[in-house]
Design a protein that fits this description.
Layout (H helix, E strand, L loop, with lengths): L2 E6 L16 H21 L5 E5 L10 E4 L6 H14 L4 E5 L8 H8 L5 E6 L6 E7 L14 H12 L2 E4 L3 H4 L12 H4 L4
Parallel strand pairs: 1-2, 1-4, 2-3, 5-7
Antiparallel strand pairs: 4-6, 5-6
Helix pairs in contact: 1-3
Length: 197
């Protein structure tokens, strides 16, 4: 089995603008970088992930064992669709798409996503049960999956699995559910907000 972990990155200074009332721009940028590093560490620790990809233009140097995939423009859904096609064309058997703002994610969380049964989609909802923080797609069965990141993506992705006739498994864990969008979420990233965190 060849499983890719694909992590979309936002290099823009407007990242996490909803946190602007409590964190200035440099602090937000540092938090975004720290959370991405945490997700990359989890992906490196996952024993059943063969390839780690960043989707978009990251800030700073990228380790040689990470592939950078070009973002074609058109927003997140267009970008992940292009990345899914690239994984399928290179004979990956599964592609996991995971957001880079999960400060408590672990290698075990990603192993669960990668270990979904063949021909089955695994999806990790956010803490509210409305968004999608990670989705694991079998290939080639889900090569035509239509992404719907944005409002109510969890329900939309469930409907898309049904459209494709693929079983769906929900993965519930604190590490996958707790993304950082609003000031009240910052408690989950407290260790990353400390100096040297």
């Amino acid at each position: 089995m060849t499983c890719w972990a694909i992590i979309p990155v936002k290099a823009s200074p407007e990242s996490k603008s909803r946190l602007a009332g409590v964190l200035d721009a440099p602090a937000r940028a540092a938090l975004v970088d720290a959370m991405l590093a945490r997700v990359l560490d989890a992906a490196h620790g996952a024993r059943n992930i063969a390839r780690i990809c960043l989707l978009g233009t990251p800030r700073g140097a990228v380790p040689r064992n990470i592939t950078v995939l070009d973002e074609p423009g058109g927003g997140l859904n267009a970008a992940v669709t292009a990345a899914l096609a690239q994984a399928a064309n290179q004979n990956a058997t599964r592609a996991i798409f995971i957001h880079g703002d999960l400060p408590q994610v672990t290698a075990r969380d990603l192993e669960l996503l990668a270990a979904a049964p063949a021909s089955e989609i695994a999806i990790a909802p956010d803490r509210h049960g409305t968004g999608t923080n990670a989705i694991s797609l079998p290939l080639p069965e889900a090569k035509d999956f239509s992404f719907a990141f944005g409002p109510d993506s969890f329900a939309r992705h469930n409907a898309e699995a049904a459209r494709l006739g693929l079983k769906l498994e929900e993965i519930h864990s604190l590490g996958l559910a707790r993304d950082i969008d609003e000031p009240e979420d910052l408690a989950d990233a407290a260790d990353l907000l400390k100096p040297g965190g």
